[in-house]
Backbone:
């Protein structure tokens, strides 16, 4: 059972890292961004490509993959997302879904369609509470905690963080002070995309890398965001870990229901706490 | 300083302002009154850059600002104080002022002094969440926040709406202190407030300015203003 919980926490950690960006774009720009799932996938593929270039040093390859996503994210923001500010939410769904389709086909064209397996980059095990766990997973959980800490400080203490916090509540009022909100939104968008790519990088050795890996993860991330509250950094953190645990525990007893359970929980939460868009 | 010429403004296909013109001199305090839905907010939003007129022009200090982005309009020296007392409730009072100081490159301490100059009691609330302030205090914070960076024109949308009589007095004092120092267009339905401060009152009805009152007696006469609405 402790093993299952540890697995759930790992999934939760990765879900958290992926969902932050989604939550922020949803919360600030009111844009449902399917392209987020593509960025997650491309992160994993960039990892695959950069590994041989740095003699299979996972850490370096991960950094390269995440940094390489910056121009991709910027392009998506500049040419797709920015055109969607303030227009009806269905346009955003269609336009960002188009990005996914184009992206997935490009991936198949460049890297092929068959899954690429990756081995555990650390390969060591640690003993916690008399259970042996892969060190890699423990590190992922720690990393998520660190990211949570850094983001919390970022949003509380920096001017960019405060501008975004204020925009989540009242975008027009921020504009009325003379602040170009869109500029800060693109910064936030790029940060969120880099985190999604990091999620893809971290998850790659746990499953395998394939062109559609972003699809299911994206839907689950939406559940995390809706349960945690749009643009709510703390809520997203809690909901990611709770849903990660639910997935792991359900999966232990009945594998096929693991993902369904996430949406059942989401449904229940939405009944009691409807989202205002 | 502000010259609005024959503007029409619409939400989609629904035209809500028809052929509105207004000239404002520097340092004046004018009021705008009218029933709910008359188009007062839409008019202020058009000046502030949140709505683009489909006809006519708006110029400020000799520059055409119709259709300019709201943040640019703000940096030119026009600040819009929204209806409904919308402070950034998740930030502290100090942080609310910090955000106002940032785009105009002022020190936050400067911004705080500015608010204290119109409302010394704000001192005690600086580290509280703005969401925990009373309606009147929020309104004062909003007006104070809009004053940061020395704007030339303030557009204030229904500052006393929903406030208790005592609190309305606080707002009145704040506005009285500012009179003459900065030009203001104030939308206000409370005709007693209008009577005490206005130099000029525009009455709006169904998207048009139907009456302009300039004489002291006319403005002070609540019943008469009421009839115009
Ligand atoms: N976002 C919108 N979309 C469509 N119509 C709108 C919108 N906002 C306002 N209107 C309409 O425009 C007209 C003018 O509204 P406006 O808010 O400017 O009035 P107001 O004089 O400020 O009223 P109030 O005293 O209630 O604040 C109203 O008929 C209103 O229904
Ligand atoms: Mg109004």
Residues:
């Amino acid at each position: 059972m402790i093993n299952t919980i540890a697995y759930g926490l790992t999934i939760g950690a990765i879900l958290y890292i992926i969902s932050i960006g989604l939550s922020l774009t949803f919360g600030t720009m009111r844009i449902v961004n399917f392209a987020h799932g593509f960025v997650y996938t491309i992160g994993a593929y960039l990892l695959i490509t950069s590994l041989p270039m740095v003699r299979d040093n996972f850490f370096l390859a991960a950094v390269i993959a995440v940094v390489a996503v910056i121009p991709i994210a910027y392009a998506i923001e500049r040419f797709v997302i920015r055109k969607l500010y303030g227009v009806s939410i269905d346009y955003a769904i269609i336009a960002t879904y188009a990005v996914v389709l184009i992206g997935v086909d490009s991936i198949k064209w460049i890297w092929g369609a068959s899954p690429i397996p990756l081995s555990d980059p650390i390969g060591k095990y640690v003993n916690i509470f008399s259970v042996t766990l892969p060190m890699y997973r423990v590190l992922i959980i720690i990393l998520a905690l660190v990211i949570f800490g850094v983001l919390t400080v970022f949003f509380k203490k920096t001017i960019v963080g405060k501008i975004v916090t204020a925009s989540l509540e009242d975008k027009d009022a921020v504009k009325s002070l003379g602040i170009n909100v869109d500029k800060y939104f693109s910064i936030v968008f790029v940060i969120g995309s880099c985190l999604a790519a990091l999620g893809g990088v971290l998850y790659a050795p746990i499953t395998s890398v394939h062109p559609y890996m972003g699809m299911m993860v994206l839907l689950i991330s939406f559940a995390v965001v809706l349960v945690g509250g749009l643009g709510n950094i703390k809520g997203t953190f809690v909901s990611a870990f709770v849903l990660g645990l639910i997935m792991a525990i359900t999966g232990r007893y009945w594998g096929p229901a693991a993902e369904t359970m996430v949406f059942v929980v989401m449904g229940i939460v939405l009944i009691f706490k409807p989202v205002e868009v | 300083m502000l010259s609005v010429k024959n503007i029409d403004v619409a939400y989609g296909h629904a035209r809500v302002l028809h052929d509105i013109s207004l000239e404002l001199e520097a340092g004046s305090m004018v009021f705008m009154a009218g029933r709910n839905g008359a188009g007062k907010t839409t008019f202020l939003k058009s000046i502030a850059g949140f709505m683009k007129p489909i006809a006519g022009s708006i110029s400020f200090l000799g520059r055409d600002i119709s259709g300019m982005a709201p943040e640019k309009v703000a940096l030119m020296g026009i600040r819009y104080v929204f209806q409904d007392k919308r402070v950034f409730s998740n930030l502290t009072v100090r942080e609310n002022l910090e955000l106002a100081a940032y785009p105009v490159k002022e020190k936050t301490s400067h911004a705080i002094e500015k608010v204290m100059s119109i409302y010394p009691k704000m001192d005690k609330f600086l580290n509280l969440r703005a969401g925990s302030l009373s309606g009147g205090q929020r309104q004062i914070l909003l007006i104070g926040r809009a004053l940061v960076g020395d704007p030339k024109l303030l557009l204030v949308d229904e500052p006393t709406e929903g406030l208790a009589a005592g609190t309305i007095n606080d707002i009145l004092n704040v506005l009285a202190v500012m009179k003459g120092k900065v030009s203001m267009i104030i939308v206000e339905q409370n005709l007693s407030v209008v009577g005490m401060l206005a130099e000029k009152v525009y009455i709006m009805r169904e998207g048009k300015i139907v009456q302009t009152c300039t004489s002291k007696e006319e403005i002070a006469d609540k019943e008469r203003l009421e009839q115009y609405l």
